[in-house]
């Protein structure tokens, strides 16, 4: 099986009366491509971690599914190119012994 492509997607959304961001966030989170979905402070509202079989697959998901949801104002997609550390574990070939020493 080929390695999947991972992306981080920023969503700006319009909160809905009586439920705020929750209803849209729940709809986004239900997509099979979505690995995680977070409400954020700052310049955008939702941070979505997504995956697909190719760059085109993720791009199609964003264009056809996410950006067309009612209440989604804009998206910004960032593709993950290389992993150095994930979930507290260093990637193969990169260990904590490779860290630079810190001087006081």
Question: What features would you describe in this structure?
Answer:
- There is one protein chain.
- With 104 residues, this protein is of the alpha+beta class.
- The protein has a single domain (5-82), classed as Lrp/AsnC effector binding domain/regulation of amino acid metabolism (RAM) domain (Alpha-Beta Plaits), CATH 3.30.70.920.
- The protein has helices spanning 22-29, 55-66; strands at 5-13, 34-39, 46-52, 72-79, 85-86, 89-90.
- It has a four-stranded antiparallel sheet. Strands 5-6 form a two-stranded antiparallel ribbon.
- A hairpin with a 2-residue loop joins strand 5 (85-86) and strand 6.
- The longest helix has 12 residues, at 55-66.
- The protein is globular.
- The model has no long low-confidence stretch (mean pLDDT 91).
List the helices and strands and how they pair.
Layout: E1 5-13, H1 22-29, E2 34-39, E3 46-52, H2 55-66, E4 72-79, E5 85-86, E6 89-90
Antiparallel strand pairs: 1-3, 1-4, 2-3, 5-6
Q: Rg from C-alpha positions?
A: 17 Å
Query: If you consult CATH, what is the topology?
Result: Alpha-Beta Plaits
Helix content: 10-25%
Which strand order spans the largest sheet, edge to edge or round the barrel? 2-3-1-4
Sheet having the most strands: 4 strands, antiparallel
Under CATH, the homologous superfamily reads Lrp/AsnC effector binding domain/regulation of amino acid metabolism (RAM) domain
CATH architecture: 2-Layer Sandwich
CATH class: Alpha Beta
Uncertain stretches: none
Distance between the termini: 47 Å
Domain tally: 1
Number of helices: 2
Q: How many beta-strand elements?
A: 6
Category from helices, strands and their pairing: alpha+beta
């Amino acid at each position: 099986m080929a390695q999947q492509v991972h992306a981080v997607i920023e969503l700006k959304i319009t909160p809905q009366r009586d439920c705020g961001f929750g209803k849209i966030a729940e709809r986004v989170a239900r997509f099979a491509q979505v690995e995680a979905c977070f409400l954020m402070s700052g310049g955008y509202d939702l941070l979505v971690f997504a995956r697909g079989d190719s760059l085109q697959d993720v791009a199609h998901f964003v264009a056809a599914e996410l950006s067309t949801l009612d209440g989604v104002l804009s998206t910004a997609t960032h593709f993950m190119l290389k992993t150095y550390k994930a979930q507290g574990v260093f990637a193969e070939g990169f260990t904590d012994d490779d860290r630079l020493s810190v001087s006081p």
